[in-house]
Amino acid sequence: GAVVSQHPSRVICKSGTSVKIECRSLDFQATTMFWYRQFPKQSLMLMATSNEGSKATYEQGVEKDKFLINHASLTLSTLTVTSAHPEDSSFYICSAGPGHLSGNSPLHFGNGTRLTVT
Amino acid sequence: AQSVTQLDSHVSVSEGTPVLLRCNYSSSYSPSLFWYVQHPNKGLQLLLKYTSAATLVKGINGFEAEFKKSETSFHLTKPSAHMSDAAEYFCVVSVYNDMRFGAGTRLTVKP
């Protein structure tokens, strides 16, 4: 079945530094990938929709200059948390689906990245 | 816009007894509905999906769900709980690629 690989699984960084998280679709091409943030014991909050070859679409309230998204190929999207602060500590999850999503295609999720900013 | 409500934030069952996780949705269009499971510090795994075909959907690990349009429900069931089923479960409604997640139901399985 379709597999989405997310790396790293855990990262600890110092306040003020930047962290890059990668999301790869391993056996399919993903025109669209999604980035979510999950707070402890809460549901997933959609941060942005990553479109291959174009700018990402950010949800209301998400700072595009802080959470930089690049979707340079059909199999790779990256999320860079710039100038990270302790409040950015969270669990970040990406997802993707084969081809152009019609709403009927289930998304496949990466295993998430636990970011801790000290 | 569509939305989904998971009626129980926490469900506790004994091993070997049935599981029922409840989900109600709201949508102006014909939705696709999904159930995902998340184990601690992991991503989400698709359990099953409804996409306007059969209303009773069978998924992995013995789970199934029934789409009931008249009740706008998509409850997840399993006849006999296993210890490995303990996890967080999310009901998701999707219309034209716009996915909305429920708040999640934490399933605890007691030995």
Written overview of the protein:
- The complex is a heterodimer of chains A (118) and B (111).
- Chain A is mainly beta and 118 residues long.
- Chain A has strands at 4-7, 10-13, 19-25, 32-38, 44-51, 57-58, 67-73, 76-81, 90-96, 108-109, 113-117.
- In chain A, the strands form two sheets. In chain A, strands 2, 4, 5, 6, 9, 10 and 11 form a seven-stranded mixed beta sheet that branches. Chain A has a four-stranded antiparallel beta sheet with strand order 1-3-8-7, with no helix packed on it.
- Chain A is globular, with a radius of gyration of 13 Å.
- With 111 residues, chain B is mainly β.
- In chain B, 0% of the residues lie in helices and 57% in strands.
- Chain B contains no helices and twelve strands.
- Chain B has strands spanning 3-6, 10-14, 19-21, 23-26, 32-38, 44-50, 56-58, 64-68, 73-78, 87-95, 98-101, 105-110.
- In chain B, the strands form three sheets. In chain B, strands 2, 5, 6, 10, 11 and 12 form a six-stranded mixed beta sheet that branches. A four-stranded antiparallel beta sheet of chain B has the order 3-9-8-7, with no helix packed on it.
- In chain B, strand 5 (32-38) and strand 6 form a beta hairpin.
- The chains are: A mainly beta (118), B mainly beta (111).
- The interface between A and B is medium-sized, with 24 and 24 residues.
